[in-house]
């Protein structure tokens, strides 16, 4: 199930990264412009809300479009089977032959799969669809993404609330770097990728975002 899978933890960490970097960039930009603690607080809250809403909308559009495309594939596959399973039978047999099965065995397996559940067999082998995406998934996935972004965005806000002079003392920068290290480890572990590569990439983007945002604020004012 998605919610207890590596993918869910990876998606959470990636979205949280976006929230952390985005909110930190906004704060550093305002700090570079000499904003007061009150202004920084308003900017931080605005960044968290805007990023969460944008994250929800973008993820919902992505997942809904993917589900629409999947539904179209299912409709086409069902139509093809209704008109005649011969083409699907040939495709299935060819798939098993590519995997190394002898032609007679591949044909026999394909015939049995078509007889048992031709639609499921076609979707699985031709499109990699184990089961159709449920209708609630785009909304749930979008909410999960918005929550993840909000959690990440809340970190700079929390530092600012606990210590209003955080920008001057670089506490936000330190907190952001430590948080990005944690999320990098989560992403790398979920993707079974190189931890150091993920760490280097994430920290580079985060530090560059904060630095450029701060310089932009200084140059503007």
Number of strands: 0
Overall structural class, as computed from helix and strand content, comes to mainly alpha
Helical fraction: over 70%
Mean pLDDT: 85
Q: What is the overall shape?
A: elongated
Nearest-angstrom radius of gyration? 24 Å
Stretches where pLDDT is under 50 for at least 5 consecutive residues are none
Order of helices and strands: HHHHHHHH
Tell me the strand percentage band.
Answer: under 5%
Tell me the span between the first and last alpha carbons.
51 Å
**What's the assembly state of these chains?**
single chain
Organism: Agromyces protaetiae
Membrane topology: Multi-pass membrane protein
GO molecular function, one term: manganese ion transmembrane transporter activity
Protein name: VIT family protein
Brief sketch in words of this structure:
It is a multi-pass membrane protein. Helix content is 86%, strand content 0%.
Description:
Helix 7 packs antiparallel against helix 8. The model has no long low-confidence stretch (mean pLDDT 85). It is elongated, with a radius of gyration of 24 Å. The protein contains 8 helices and no strands. The chain has 2 domains: 149 residues, no CATH class; 53 residues, no CATH class. The chain is mainly alpha-helical and 221 residues long. Helices cover 86% and strands 0% of the residues.
């Amino acid at each position: 199930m998605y919610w207890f899978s590596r993918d869910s933890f990876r998606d959470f960490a990636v979205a949280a990264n976006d929230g952390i970097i985005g909110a930190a960039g906004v704060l550093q930009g305002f700090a570079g412009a000499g904003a007061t603690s009150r202004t920084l607080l308003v900017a931080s809250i605005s960044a968290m809300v805007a990023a969460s809403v944008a994250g929800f909308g973008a993820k919902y559009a992505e997942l809904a479009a993917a589900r629409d495309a999947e539904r179209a594939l299912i409709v086409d596959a069902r139509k093809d089977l209704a008109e005649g399973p011969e083409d699907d039978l040939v495709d299935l047999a060819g798939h098993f032959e590519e995997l190394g099965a002898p032609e007679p065995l591949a044909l026999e397996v394909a015939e049995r799969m078509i007889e048992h559940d031709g639609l499921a067999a076609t979707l699985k082998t031709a499109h990699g669809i184990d089961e159709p995406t449920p209708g609630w998934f785009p909304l749930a996935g979008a909410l999960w993404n918005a929550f993840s972004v909000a959690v990440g965005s809340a970190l700079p806000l929390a530092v600012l609330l606990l210590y209003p002079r955080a920008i001057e003392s670089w506490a936000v920068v330190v907190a952001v770097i430590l948080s990005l290290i944690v999320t990098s480890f989560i992403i790398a572990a979920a993707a079974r990728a190189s931890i150091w590569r993920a760490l280097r990439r994430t920290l580079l983007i985060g530090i560059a975002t904060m630095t450029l945002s701060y310089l932009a604020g200084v140059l503007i004012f």
